[in-house]
Structures are given as C-alpha cells and as structure tokens.
Amino acid sequence: MAERYERGEEIARGAVGAVWRAVDRQTGEPVAVKVLRPEAAAEPELVAGFAAEAEILAALDHPGIVGLRGTTMVDGAPGLVLDLVEGEDLRHRLRRDGPVPPAIAAHIAAQVADALAYLHGRGVVHGDIKPANLLVPADGGRVRVADFGVARRLGAGRPAVIHATPEYVAPEVVAGEPAGPGADVYALGIVLYELLTGRSPYRGGQPTQVLARHTTCTPVPPPGLPAVVWPVIEDCLATAPDQRPAAGLLAARLRGLEPALDGAPTLAPLGGDQVTWWPRPGRPTVARAPVAWVPLRAAPVSPASAYAGGLVAIPLAGLARSGPTPVEPGPDLHRRVALFGGGVAVVTLVVVAAVALIGGRGASAPDAGPEGRSPTVVSQTTVPTGPSAPTSTATAQPDVGEALVPPDLGPLPGIGDLMPSMPPTT
C-alpha cells in the first residue's frame, strides 16, 4: 500500500474489491481502503464501475453515506480511501440475531430513506439497496449506506445492462428499464420487510424465480405485524414507480410510526415453509426481460459465495432485437445465458456440472437460506473477513464460464482515465 496508509487486516471481500483496515499516517485516523481485485481488473465493466463509484462518491457528503476521502494505488491496483465504519453490515446482523423490534426497524429504514433522499436530490440512484450494503456502527451511530458499485447518475445515458440483486430488484428493472429513484424506494421496502421478519418476501428457489415474483406476485403481511406498518410497505412495493413515495416522504412517514410502534414485540422469524407471497390476480402487469447470466472470473469464493447477495445482468428494454419472447422462469432457465449489449441470443451451458452450480443447492427448497443460495453471478457485495465474519462450510466455487463482455461497447479507457479528477491522497 502507498506510504501514506499503513495497512492492517482485511475486513471485507467481494467479487470486485477487497476492503482493508488502514491508518492514515499523516492524520493518524483509521480509514478503510477498497482495492480493485486483480481478477476484477481483467473485466472492463468492473473496472469502469469501480471508477464510476469513485466519481460519484467524490461528489457526496452526507452522514448516512460512507464517504470517499481520496484515491490511492495498492500494489499497482487502484484503491478508494473510505470512511471506516466500526461495526457490521445489516445482513450479518439479521442472520445472527434475527428480526428487530418494529420501532427499531422503522428507525433504521428512516435513516436509509434520509440518505436516499439526499442521493436522489443530487441525481444519483444507488441501485443496490440491501442489508449487505447497510453498515451498522458498533457505537449506535446512524446506519451508513455503502457500496456504490452499481450506482448511476440520472440522465447519464443508458448502460448496456442493469446489474441488480434478485431479492431486492424493482419490477421495472426486471422489465429492462434503468433503475430510478423509485427502484431504491422499492428495495428499501423489501429491506423493511426483512428487518421485521428476518427474510425477504420473495426469497427462495432460482434467481429467475425470485425475479419473476417481483412482477407477478404480491407480498403477504407477516403474522403479528402491527397494522400501521403494512400500508407503508405496500406503498414502497407498488408496481409502478410513480406510485411509490419519494424517499424524503417515506422517511417522514417512518418517523411518524415510531411512537405507535414503541413497545411492540419483535416478530417471530419467518421460516422457509411460511407463505410470504401470493400470485397477483390476472396477468402480470410488467413484462420480464431476458436475464443475462454473466459468470465472471472474479466470482467470489467461500465464504462469500454462501453469504453475499448475487447480482444478475438484465438487458435494457429496447436494446434487444426482435425475436423470441422472454423465457418464462422455470427449472431450465438457469441453463441459459442471454448475451447482452445488443441482442437476445441465447446459448446453453453444456456441462451438467455448471447447471448444478448455477442452479444452486436444493433448487426446489422453499428457502435456500444463506448456506444454500443460488451462486453469485455478478457481485459487488463486500463480505466481512475479519474475526467477526460468519463461519461457513461452503466449498470454493469454481468458475462456470468466461465473462461475457458486451460486443458493441468498443474499447474502454484505462483505470487511470476513469478515476475522478480529485487529487490522489498518496
């Protein structure tokens, strides 16, 4: 690591970056340094995303967002110097302790909504709100939004694909539309449900099945949920993004609920056999785009493969040529790879072993659980690796194919050209 920063232990690792604890020798302050992994540096899309994350973070300043302090180089690889949050991510906390009391769930969601209102007011969409990207400080401070690896600026042009986490993706994104502010609000509604119950409503089975539920199903209120909470969740999960509340209004509504929820008991965790969604009556109101599976050489290994939420690539609506209609979710869809960046050509993975890997363990189980999730396809989630990291018996996940790079994007600039213009702090 550059001389200014004294590196300590690795505290998190994902498919794109590894995060290290460090000390700024000039100020004596502890910081976190996120470094682009060598495997990810070979993927142009991930390099561009890493640089875009730095550019977006450089323009943000909010107490509910992990801030960028500068850039650096670590053994020839680009790195982001970030605020160090002493604590853990919300996913880890939920997996260990289960649901939180309703008043605390509303309080946490209100803090995240505040941060989203700030982002949206500056024309930025996070695009991957989920418990793994929400950091809970050990000192009881406010929750911080992290990992802007798939964030985008509104009006910055249409990307070739949208990356999304199946459990938290909005219906319009499943249909192939770019994520807007409403997509962040939708994801936060799913997070609120998970805070209250210990699991997201559409979890279980193949990622394609999870994606389909966002467009064809509606969540079921969990047993024991205080009646005042459900209308807020329903509004966040409205099918049309313009029917969802703005993030600032959502924050105010959630804070207004806290007095009524004070003293309400924590709900029992929802098991994998409990009903959390019903099919919507009639035909689905949102069309589903074909999903582009993108196995990357940077795919995470144990324990990340059993812990990190996966991202899938969805081609934007209007980019696909006329051709077959999207394949309905089913037990064989995970065997197909839709080439993105200009087509809907579908190829089949030819080895049964790869099918088993992509299908995950126990595809027919109602709830795969953190140890039996479908594997990560594209992941930018960082995973705790220090002493507090969750243990896992999962074996390392081998690669199931080469990365599919959009054929029409042309050469991409190097990382040095993509990093923000702010001066390095090394």
UniProtKB/TrEMBL annotation:
The record's region (Disordered) falls at: 362-426
Biased amino acid composition, Low complexity: 374-396, 411-420
Q: Where is the Protein kinase domain?
A: 5-261
Keyword match Nucleotidyltransferase: no
Q: Which UniProt keywords apply?
A: Membrane, Transmembrane, Transmembrane helix
Q: Which Gene3D superfamilies match?
A: Phosphorylase Kinase, domain 1, Transferase(Phosphotransferase) domain 1
Q: What is this protein called?
A: Protein kinase domain-containing protein
Originating species:
Asanoa iriomotensis
